[in-house]
Amino acid sequence: MLHQLALGFTRFIGPVSTKALINHCGSAEAVFSTSETQLLDIPGIHKRIVSGLLDPSVMRRAEEELKFIDRHQVKVLFYGDQEYPKRLMNCCDAPPLLYYKGTADLNAQKIIAVVGTRKMTPYGQRVCEELMAELAAYNVITISGLAYGVDAAVHRQSVQHGVPTIGVLGHGLDTLYPRSHLELSRKMAVSGGLLTEFPTGTLPDRSNFPMRNRIIAGMADAVIVVEASRKGGALITADLANSYFRDVFAYPGRAGDEFSEGCNFLIRSNRAALITCATDLINALNWGNREVLSNVQASLPLALNDEERLLTESLREGPLSVDELCCRLDMPQSRLSVVLLNLEMQGILIALPGKRYRIA
């Protein structure tokens, strides 16, 4: 773990170069024992990265972080670990390292992100209350950013209805911003948790929050925007979710309302599907047909070939994107497109927005 932490403190190194180093050297520990000449031979690794790896302060900082982790029972999740969020791992810019304080399963079957404005109106509050009251029966985990407004409302309503909820932070676990949410965060930790890519000592700087939003989008099956203006973190999260081929939903609002402009824009530009209640979401994600999904293999036509059977088996637990199917089946996209089309024409699969598919 020490060498994994050290990689996180190395200057000039990001998610892509970290993964390149691990893939080439085999482990974080091996990275630090590889010669300078060999490191420079790795594609994408330049002199500034190598000089950062040779900086003795990196290992000292990692040792300090390790003491905090042990003292506060923080889980360190490194890219590729069994507990690392697998949905996030499919995103090209996934952080190599995550710090997690909580109990919720980050790879649970149903994870929904709910985001919105910090200046929530009574309409947004009512939407959050009704949404969480209905979703409580579906064994869902919610995820948001623990900010003022919609984020905090979703976390509070999740706690109230016994739904595990995870707050993704834009700073280290040695602090909490905003401080007024300290008591809420303690309640969340009982069945949910707090998650961040930032080590201790990281302040809640403005630039950290857009980075935080990619984790919210990448960890979820779907992102719901409750209220949002045309500019802000909620629309950034929605755009990221679309780029990751996640489903995006938005609640519409009245024309001219400042904090409905963002949602109305997402719907109008086909970047989000319109929903007005949890039932719309449940139907779109096919959660209402749990019995059908659990027995789908028994009802599949006997005429399916091996490729078709493998594909439908992959979709038993829920919708997947084309990219996710390519990875799971180790199948070229050109061939996968043919198999998907055949199954869709037979009525076995249904195409969803964002190049995703589910069992019919």
Rg over C-alpha atoms, rounded to the nearest angstrom: 22 Å
Number of helices: 19
Physical arrangement of strands within the biggest beta sheet: 1-2-6-5-4-3-7-8-9
| Poorly predicted runs of 5 or more residues | 290-302
Largest sheet: 9 strands, mixed
N- to C-terminal distance = 44 Å
| Approximate shape | globular
CATH architecture of the largest domain: 3-Layer(aba) Sandwich
**Strand proportion:** 5-15%
Into which percent range does the helicity of residues fall?
A: 40-55%
Q: Please state the average pLDDT score.
A: 89
Kindly report the CATH topology of the largest domain: Rossmann fold
CATH class of the largest domain: Alpha Beta
Strand pairing plus helix content: what structural class? alpha/beta
User: What oligomeric state do these chains adopt?
Assistant: single chain
In total, how many domains does the architecture comprise?
A: 3
The overall strand count is 12
What features would you describe in this structure?
The protein is α/β, with parallel strands linked by helices. The chain folds into 3 domains: 62 residues, Orthogonal Bundle (DNA polymerase, domain 1); 174 residues, Rossmann fold, CATH 3.40.50; 71 residues, Winged helix-like DNA-binding domain superfamily/Winged helix DNA-binding domain (Arc Repressor Mutant, subunit A). The chain has 19 helices and 12 strands. The strands form 2 sheets. The protein has a 9-stranded mixed beta sheet with strand order 1-2-6-5-4-3-7-8-9, sandwiched between helices. A 3-stranded antiparallel beta sheet has the order 10-12-11. Helix 8 links the parallel strand 3 and strand 4. Helix 8 runs parallel beside helix 9 and helix 11 packs across helix 12. The chain is globular and about 55 Å long. About 4% of the residues have low confidence.
